[in-house]
Amino acid sequence: MRVSEFRALADAVFGAAYAPTLLRELALDGCDSLTAAAALDAGWAPRDVWHALCDQMSVPLHARDGGDARRIVPPRR
Q1: CA-CA distance, 75 to 51, in Å (whole number)?
Q2: What CA–CA distance (Å, rounded) separates 37 from 43?
Q3: Could you give the dihedral angle defined by the CA atoms of residues 60, 50, 9 and 3, in that order, rounded to the nearest 10 degrees?
Q4: Which of 24, 44, 47, 66 has a CB 3.0–4.6 Å from the CB of 1, allowing a cystine?
Q5: What pLDDT is recorded for position 69?
Q6: In this predicted structure, what is the pLDDT of residue 44?
Q7: 47: domain range?
Q8: pLDDT digits (tens, 9 = 90+) for 14-73
Q9: Would you say 1 and 52 are in contact if contact means Cβ atoms under 8 Å apart?
Q10: Residue 26 falls within a domain, yes or no?
């Protein structure tokens, strides 16, 4: 997963208006309390940050593709 794919998924799942704020403001337990944006900047793999964000926001596995079954979401490591 690339960062651009991560951001597109965030827009699809959380909405284009809310996603940027969420990525910038929400501290993620699964990323050592970094925000998603800070974790990506620090070199965390986008797929790990994606799953940490979805876990924190209680997004079920079947909804993590943003409603597009053709979109590939890498599995958790």
Answers
A1: 9
A2: 10
A3: -170
A4: 47
A5: 80
A6: 97
A7: 3-63
A8: 999 999 999 999 999 999 999 999 999 999 999 999 999 999 999 998 899 988 888 888
A9: no
A10: yes
